[in-house]
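Supplementary Methods S3. Complex input for the uracil-bound model.
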Amino acid sequence: MNGPSELNWDNLENGVRNCRRCVLGSQRLNSVLGRGSRTATLMFVGEGPGRQEDEQGLPFVGAAGQLLDTALESLSFDPADYYIANVVKCRPPMNRTPLPEEAAACLNYLRAQFALIKPRIIVCLGSVAHTNLVSSEETITRARGKWIQKKDVWFLSTYHPAALLRDETKKLPFWQDLKLAKQKLDEIKNGQI
Ligand code: URA
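Predicted complex, serialized as structure tokens:
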């Protein structure tokens, strides 16, 4: 969180709702904190809200979100096991990629979400999440599908679901990556790791 306030969901929600740390805060309809289980073992992290997310105040509710939801359901992910958030909490104009300074200004909110939820697995959806949370060295095409462990958290990067809408060939690797995430989730839930 920004400033000295205690870390809890109320403070985080208020902080994000009133945030003016970057220019995106003055252009949004709604900030978009996240959706899903606050006791999740796994967090998905996307890029930032699009038009529908801005209108509804929820992440991944447009076409990319429907694709993600369908894939998670097909792989039998239990909604109690995951939470979905973004690197930036306010919509970039014209859905442009968030600027590095916008991501930097917003990252403490995501860190607060990590601290509250304490996920054991973080799946980066696309290069913005991968760059900000894992590494800026490799492209998403090279980095995807590989586990990286930092302390007791497992990171996996994959394509952003919106990329699948533009390029069908990304669907299979995306599906394989989500299967890896589900396997790891099951191992953690079964106490194997
Ligand atoms: N794309 C994202 O990265 N996040 C959303 O919430 C919606 C689309």
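The chain has one domain: 9-189. The pocket of uracil is lined by residues 46-50, 53, 59-60, 62, 64-65, 86, 162 (CB under 6 Å).
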